[in-house]
Amino acid sequence: MDSAYSVNSVSSDEIDLFDLIDDIKEKWYWLVGTVLLSLCLALVYAYTTTPVYQTEVVYKEVSDVDLLPLNQPRLQGIFSLSREKAFKEVRALARSGNSKRAFYNQLLAENNAELSALVYEEKLTEEQNFVLFSERFTYADPGAKETDVLLRIQFELSDPQWATQLLNRYSDFILQRYLDEVRNTLELTRDARLEALELEADGLRTKYLAQKNQRMLMLEEASSISASIKQKMPFYSGNNNALLGSQPPLFMMGQTVINSELSQIRSRAEHGEDAYISGLPELNWKIQNLKKAEVSWDKVRFVQLDQSAVLPLKPVKPRKVMIVALAGVAGGMAGVVFALLAAAQARRRNSERGRRAALQGC
Known about the structure:
The chain contains 11 helices and 4 strands; from the N terminus they run H-H-E-H-H-H-H-E-E-H-H-H-H-E-H. By secondary structure, it is of the alpha+beta class.
């Protein structure tokens, strides 16, 4: 009995399936009409929607040679920049909302009517316009399996020529902005280091002048004492030195020696006193080297522009073939549903008529 029940169930299922197919065949015009309507709407949308073009620039890491002007020996301990750090900072700057806002404001300040029509809508607020402009940018970093370190910056706009021009300008804007940041950082760091070295040098000079003035005062005092006792020549000799000690009073050196030392100390200013200050010549050498350090900025590259933006040949949106294909599939599915519903409605009406006729016959 179970077998018979199974066969009957299968037969019932098959009949139901064939009934569905018969219903679709009977109401075929619903299926065809829905598909045709969907295709027509898709074609209208695909050919009336404003096309969107996309272009891109590609950044890669530079070699160490491209950063040698910055990493020169004269700037060691003051400033250095690795290629990894340079690429990371340029990538962050290119993604930064502040960078895009500054670039967008620069574009609006040009008051170009053709450009403004593409990137600015009067009915929107300034913030809303900027958000729409910012969303035109997309970024693609390499995957984990890729060996090259690169960054793709893509930009979309309805005008292919303006899209190409704006993305190249944005790329130049980012590189120039990063160059300005690096240059400003270098100058501030170097100025701070120069100021510290010069303060240290001034400290050595101050200390030297204090010791010099103290020595001159002591010599002048000793000279007066020697003159008062009429001590012209040194009082001590080699033998007397042993008796009097290794450091006898200055006046015992005699007025002639004392005045000679005073004269020598006063004449140092004519030849430059920095040479007499311990540690100062080395500091002056560091200061001069740091002042002479010049960076050939035109030879510095922070990232490699592997690909600049080129004019796109065809739009990326709308994808007409995909839209039409999806519309056909969706229309077919909707048409099947409509055909089945129409057939079910027709059966219901027939059933109602039969029931009414049976009641009237009774």
